[in-house]
UniProtKB/TrEMBL annotation:
Pfam families the UniProt entry points to: Peptidase_C1, Propeptide_C1
Residue ranges of every copy of the Peptidase C1A papain C-terminal domain listed in the record: 81-329
Cleavable signal peptide: 1-17
Name used for this protein in its record: Peptidase C1A papain C-terminal domain-containing protein
InterPro entries (UniProt xref): Papain-like_cys_pep_sf, Pept_asp_AS, Pept_cys_AS, Pept_his_AS, Peptidase_C1A, Peptidase_C1A_C, Propeptide_C1A
Organism: Molorchus minor
């Protein structure tokens, strides 16, 4: 009897390894940390937040209707690509590059990440003269053919819209600069937030209103436009040269349950089910403990991850991070 009991106790931990755990449980986080060493997981979301809510934060729809031309950078033996790069350090006049936005309880990542990169590029290519943000509210609510607003959208169509119709200026929730600010209030996705209300589930997509918040500005005079929009080949050097020469880009990747608990290091998928496809802004790259990474700004506010940022494995199209890169150049007067 004693032998049988001892065998049972030895077998019990290995049996637990195959048990499906809630992705926000301490047990799941511990399991993730026990399986890898390039990144650390920790508590970002409270255990009571439903997985269905996490899925709403991933809002990239399949691109099946509109393709962008692919831009190719010439790569020769003389092409100099640094081992590490951070757009915040190269273009110091452009504070927007270092901003972390909050999409709130809305699957608007496809729009938020797009206007982040558009804003950066307007500033970069105007040598710092254009400091106003591009409005995520305007893109989210007025681009009917981009998708379903807070229920997701297509990244290439967001850039297509900037080229063909333009997007007005406007900042985050509660800001007064620009034409149209984001109307979806930031909410406490995370456990360490004391300044935001609780997230109450995905809200409705804001109505398209083609007028500015203030009567002192006009909608048409606040429009920003692209001179060209394009995709980038899914090759590391092509993505690096695009960022190095023109500024941050928008990208998407497959989000699995372990990612939501990212805290530091270079993320690599370990465990969990697929939640959806998520859009983000890539602003640089580097190497950490011999592991190459992309430096990325997320839009789940600064309480998440590494002050709103994360690093992800570079060079192997990990979770499709290098498959879908879109960008464009602003039309300057």
């Amino acid at each position: 009897m004693r032998v049988i009991l001892c065998l049972a106790l030895v077998a019990f931990p290995s049996a637990l390894a195959g048990v499906k755990l809630h992705p926000l449980s301490d047990e799941f986080i511990d399991r993730v940390n026990s399986k890898q060493s390039t990144w650390k997981a920790g508590r970002n979301f409270g255990e009571t937040i439903p997985v269905s809510y996490l899925r709403t934060l991933t809002g990239v729809l399949e691109d099946s209707t509109e393709k962008l031309l692919t831009r190719v950078h010439e790569v020769t033996e003389d092409t100099d690509i640094p081992e590490s790069f951070d757009a915040r350090e190269k273009w110091t006049k452009c504070a927007s590059i270092g901003e972390i936005r909050d999409q709130g309880a809305c699957g608007s990542c496809w729009a938020v990440a797009a206007v982040e990169a558009m804003t950066d590029r307007l500033c970069i290519h105007s040598d710092g003269e254009h400091q106003e943000s591009v409005s995520s509210e305007d893109l989210l609510s007025c681009c009917d053919y981009c998708g379903s607003g807070c229920n997701g959208g297509v990244m290439t169509l967001a850039w297509h819209y900037w080229l063909n119709y333009g997007i007005v200026t406007g900042g985050e929730y509660g800001t007064t600069t620009g034409c149209k600010s984001y109307s979806i209030e930031p909410c406490a996705h995370h456990i360490n937030s004391t300044s935001r209300p609780s997230c109450s589930g995905e809200g409705p997509t804001p109505a398209c209103v083609k007028q500015c918040d203030s009567s002192t500005q006009t909608y048409n005079n606040s429009l920003t436009l692209a001179s060209s929009v394009y995709s980038i080949e899914p090759e590391v050097s092509q993505i690096q040269l695009e960022i190095l020469n023109n500024g941050p880009v928008e990208a998407s990747f497959a989000v699995y349950e372990d990612f939501v608990s990212y805290k530091s290091g270079v993320y690599q998928y370990v465990e969990g089910d697929l939640l959806g496809s998520h859009a983000i802004k890539i602003l640089g790259w580097g190497v950490e403990n011999d592991t190459p990474y992309w430096l990325i700004a997320n839009s789940w506010n600064g309480d998440w991850g590494d002050n709103g940022y994360f690093k992800i494995l570079r060079g192997s199209n990990h979770v499709k991070i290098e498959s879908h890169i879109v960008a464009g150049l602003p039309l300057l007067e």
